[in-house]
Description:
The complex is a heterodimer.
Chain A: H1 3-7, H2 14-33, H3 37-59, H4 68-76, H5 94-107, H6 115-126, H7 140-155, H8 157-160
Helix pairs in contact in A: 2-3, 2-7, 3-5, 3-7, 6-7
Chain B: H1 15-27, E1 36-43, E2 46-52, H2 61-76, H3 78-81, E3 84-90, H4 92-98
Parallel strand pairs in B: 2-3
Antiparallel strand pairs in B: 1-2
Helix pairs in contact in B: 1-2
Amino acid sequence: MGYRAVLETTQETVQDVALAAQRRLDEASTLLTYNRYHTAIYVGGLSAEMFLKTACFIVGGANLAAPTAALMTPLKHKNYTPPYKGDWEGGHGLWFWSQELLARRRGQGKRTPNRFMQVLAALYSDWFVSMRYRPGSATRDESAAFLYNVEWLANNHSILRR
Amino acid sequence: MPVRENLAHAAIPEEAELRRQIEAELQQPTNNPEPVIIIERPNPTTTHLFVIWSRFDGLEQIVRSRIILDAFGAVRGEHEASNVTVSMGLTPAEAGRMGIS
Lengths: 162, 101
């Protein structure tokens, strides 16, 4: 049985994605240590996506055991009108997820830290999911700054999902 | 072999029937033991849908979720459906494990 088949034997849950977010961030840090700056940004961006996504799901009412398929379907449904129509990027768009999270929190009367949008603006200016197809030319400073902002999401995840 | 100009979405054979039954239950709730439809509104802008049904056994969550949301949208309208953030189909055993009843 291949590795893919092993992973696909169970359905992905919110907890899986939350754990994966932290693991991808750890792996991105390792890539930075080993001077793989472009890939560190790429993997760090995936981590950011997952932190935003899980915060959205939990603010939207899901618990950690919820299968993510049940939470993604409403966002892909024809009836759904996103707060921000651009940057879907096949479900990976950082701006999409940040706006979705803000909209859900606002709808429940919850304030979001002011720093959140500054962090997202910085992440969005350096990452897009198709950057995996580029050889890359990021510098060490760019990569380190990017991961610093992803770490802010990780450290404030408990606040963002409350 | 005919040439087609569009890609048809291959629905699960029983998908339409399951959706029709959920629509019927939403329009006119019965005393039938299943499907159990739970509509939760924790706040004015958020709706959670849970359907507990033995007939979901063997169907992937993404299919169950689609069936439920399509049925809800058909009965309650686009505006209400746009507030749904959770659309989850569970068998009775799964619901028990998740503490949903």
